[in-house]
Amino acid sequence: MSTTTETEIPLRQRVAENPQPALIWAAVGAVLIGVELGAILQVVGAVAGVVVNLLPGDPGASAVQSLQAAFDAVPTLVSRDVIPNQGYWNGTGYENTFLGLSPAVAWVIRVAFVYAYAFAVLAWAWNGYTRFRRHYRRVDWTPRDDVVNRFRGHSWGKFGLIIVITFVVMAVFAPALGPTTMERNILQPYDYEVTYWSEDTQSTETVLVGEANLGSGSQGAGDENVAPLTYDDYGRFHPFGTATNGKDLFTQVVFGARISLTIAVVAMGIAGLIGLGLAMITAYYKGLADLATVLVSDSVQALPVIMVLILMLVIFQNTWVRELYDGAVLIILIFSVVYWPFIWRSIRGPALQVSEEDWIDAAKSFGQTPTQVMRKHMAPYVFSYMLIYASLSLGGIIISVAGLSYLGLGITAPTPEWGRLIANGQQYVASPSWHISLVPGLLITLVVTGLNAFGDGIRDAIDPQADTGDEAAATGGGA
Amino acid sequence: MSRWQYFLRRVLMSIPVVIFGTTITFALIRLGPLDPVSAILGTQYNPQAAEQIRTNLGLNQPLWSQYLDFMYELFTFQLGQSWVIAPGTTAYELIEIYAPRTIWLGFWSVLIALFVGIPLGFYAGLNPNTPSDYVASFGGIVWRAMPNFWLAIMLVTALSQLGTWTNGLFTWQTWIVRTNVVTPPALGFFQSPVEQFLADPGGWTESFIRATKQIAPAALVLGSASMGNEMRIGRTAVLETINSNYVETARAKGVSGRSLVWKHIFRNALIPLVPIITGEAFLLLGGSVFVETVFAINGLGWLFFNAAINGDLPLIGTLMFIFILILVGTNILQDFLYTIIDPRVGYDG
């Protein structure tokens, strides 16, 4: 099969012949990754901890713990410790904040810094791709270049991409973005203390975070409300105000972004794998396999999605699966089961078309196994169609998860979730505490609009003539 | 294959789909980790009552015979009864009570979506890349991205506060007829409408308007996603038809502008809208749970949700079967419309 031609020089050799662009790129990358090394190692440590927990007998638990401790010691540039905002007024100036600035300003600087860093990393990755294209790629042009160029000329799609990136960064850097931490403000408020300046005694005092929360809830009335961009009575800054129970809304919103996006992406990934696998099998073997899948997928599609979600969440309410990550694992599984028929439907046509191509016959007569043919010669052509459909459906999942949580069936406390926040503030929408319901709802609208725009961009880039297919599915069954 | 053969094949295919869908429901309810009996009894669990219910529901029988019974009873429309939320009431009675409100809600949400979404989309398509096109398109996209339940909450607040905001110039509650913002529609006028109308035309009209006004905000929210879809697809469809050869030909042979729009563009642009309109059935059923919860309309979605959280599994099985029938029925309707509207159906496969 492989006849080495002159053009097929391995990438390593091509880089060695002209090392300068690659070296510059690698050096910038080393700096960018180096300043975040601590955070990356912490993630590795956390993953190792989860793996050890899952293994029977917890082998090497102590080793992992000492490893995590060592990783925690590695400094990180984009972190709360570098630009702290949780200080207090001592009568003459701020203590424990970044450069002695007010907590609000320190927080704004940190958020700006996080986003600057994230966009720098993305610019670096994009630069790597263009360098590869210019200096190291064997061919001058591939069909994928056209896709990339079409997307670059699609301003609506780029608008979507920027919004999506904004939310992804929010999810990834959630711990660094909040004005306070999950642990301190939401999970264990009675294990931490907050120091504040008391006007009555004209001195600094300390109080448990939990008690401070009780005194700074937003429940409608003027003195019982902490509006967005204000401080509460304990000198804590709240960019989005507080929830009814006094917990910081912004912290909950960024962690809510984390759970929503994770569920949407993972569920769509699993559903996509099932759909793609089945599409390969049905397109390759046709006949009975195809008919059986048509029947099963039509039956699943004939069920009302939201009703099935509600029913399944009720049926599994007291099981161990429901407890995993406050229900996220179960919700991901349910969405994968419910969504694969839609994916399979959307790529069945293209898959059948590809299977009729001459090169499939050629591959077969060369003696390639069915799995090889499907993986190497069919899947790559169908994958882009799946991408279109999946990107257009992500918004629907986010809305559905929020809706289920609003009904009290989705993600349960203590993990923050947008739909639960909306339910939390529902009775105060007409009062000064309007922010509790309004902000999460606006964010959902924004991220779903962004995802849809991004999906439109991908669709137009991959296949300008593509039929949008099933639009209804993309809106999450009406939640 | 002729069009009608194709249609017949689609109808025949829907039979196994209904059977399979109902089987999935059975599997969820009877094989899932939630025991129907303890779900029904909840905290008042005692072995005697449990045994009683078990016998009543036929849960002592082997699984295959339970399955056959379940399927037989549903397909012969012996729909059983509620066990928790209205013990002893038959499913028929419950549906008779709750369904009219949902149908009323669904009717108006389809109508509002159709009469706002399609004209806006066609207008945007006929005037592409103008400021009004951008406003309409962007508005439609954002409108469609809003979660129904959140939009409902915001609308309820806005309508309740309208009097305060406008200093009492306009209050929703007193506009035309007096109603509450959050309320189930009074559908009394629906029973024997002809006699009632003849007996008291004014009163009947007023109750009709009242019920419509009561349902309007909820219908607007429930139709929001479909409205956005219809606008988008309508716009694309018009754009595609405008640039097609036959419209060019018609224009060249001197067809007047009005006739061009209505006969050549409008009719052909409707074709891709058919699946969007029939697809609304899915959005309406799912969305009814949320919208009915926020607007306190006790309809089918509300009934299903309450049956689910209270563990009324027998009733849920019945409702699910009804929903499957509705959705499969809409799919058949869609194929039927296609067969009538688009003569090309069936020729390619």
UniProtKB/TrEMBL annotation, chain A:
Topology in membrane: Multi-pass membrane protein
Domain of life from the UniProt record: Archaea
One GO CC term, this protein: plasma membrane
Name of a matching Pfam family: BPD_transp_1
Keyword entries, A-Z: Cell membrane, Membrane, Transmembrane, Transmembrane helix, Transport
Membrane-spanning intervals of the chain: 22-52, 104-126, 159-177, 259-281, 302-321, 327-344, 382-413, 433-454
ABC transmembrane type-1 domain: residues covered: 257-455
Localization annotation: Cell membrane
GO biological process: transmembrane transport
Entry annotated with the keyword Membrane: yes
Position of the signal peptide: none
Sequence similarity: Belongs to the binding-protein-dependent transport system permease family.
Alphabetized PANTHER family for the sequence: D,D-DIPEPTIDE TRANSPORT SYSTEM PERMEASE PROTEIN DDPC-RELATED (PTHR43386:SF1), OLIGOPEPTIDE TRANSPORT SYSTEM PERMEASE PROTEIN APPC (PTHR43386)
Protein's name according to its UniProt entry: Binding-protein-dependent transporters inner membrane component
Automatic annotation (TrEMBL), chain B:
CDD domains assigned: TM_PBP2
Keyword Calcium among UniProt keywords: no
Membrane topology: Multi-pass membrane protein
InterPro entries registered for this protein in UniProt: BPD_transp_1_N, MetI-like, MetI-like_sf
Keyword Transmembrane helix: yes
SUPFAM superfamilies, A to Z: MetI-like
Ranges for domain ABC transmembrane type-1: 99-334
Membrane-spanning segments: 12-31, 74-95, 102-124, 149-170, 269-291, 303-328
Gene Ontology cellular component list: plasma membrane
A Gene Ontology biological process term: transmembrane transport
Location (main, coarse): membrane
Localization per Swiss-Prot or TrEMBL: Cell membrane
Keywords: Cell membrane, Membrane, Transmembrane, Transmembrane helix, Transport
PANTHER family, A to Z: DIPEPTIDE TRANSPORT SYSTEM PERMEASE PROTEIN DPPB-RELATED (PTHR43163)
Family of this protein: Belongs to the binding-protein-dependent transport system permease family.
Protein name stated in the entry: Putative dipeptides/oligopeptides ABC transporter permease
Organism for this UniProt entry: Haloferax sulfurifontis ATCC BAA-897
